[in-house]
Design brief:
Elements: H1 2-16, H2 45-57, H3 71-103, H4 109-117, H5 121-149, H6 156-178
Helix pairs in contact: 3-5, 5-6
GO biological process, one term: tricarboxylic acid cycle
Protein name: Cytochrome b560 subunit of succinate dehydrogenase
Keywords: Heme, Iron, Membrane, Metal-binding, Transmembrane, Transmembrane helix
Length: about 180
Amino acid sequence: MLAQRAFQTTLRRVAAQPLSRAVVPAASFSQQRRLAATQNIPATATENELLVQQRLRRPVSPHISIYKAQITWYASGLNRITGVALAGSFYLYGLAYLVAPLTGWHIESMTLATAFAAWPAFAKVGVKFLAAWPFTYHAVNGLRHLSWDFAVGMKNKTVIQTGWVMVGTSFLGACYLAF
């Protein structure tokens, strides 16, 4: 890093000098410096009052509360949330599986399948839907983002339409996996 910076500085020095001096070693040149003013200039009372009045008349910058919520906002936020939920649950289960022999937990596949089979049907479907929906949502939205990487469907109308199609597809996919 230091060698690169020294090389860049030398190139700048050589480039800044007239052509006749370019044959002289770069170390003999002085570096151009621009000094910044560091002096504090106190304002008078009338200047402060003028500044306060100007600040009161300035327009307020746009804030999130004045915009109409769009499907793209929700889709982007939910894509991040489902990604974190999927990755987090994967890592938590993996860590629990590694610690299970030390703590006496029984979270091997056979034990979990036996316990899950004893649940009522509505609980099974609900848990399967809760597990399947983030997966299908994140997968379908990932395909949507992949199409954007190839510049397909980048018009505003298409983005909104694919957002709603993605929501419906992920819901139907989760229902299919749950039932």
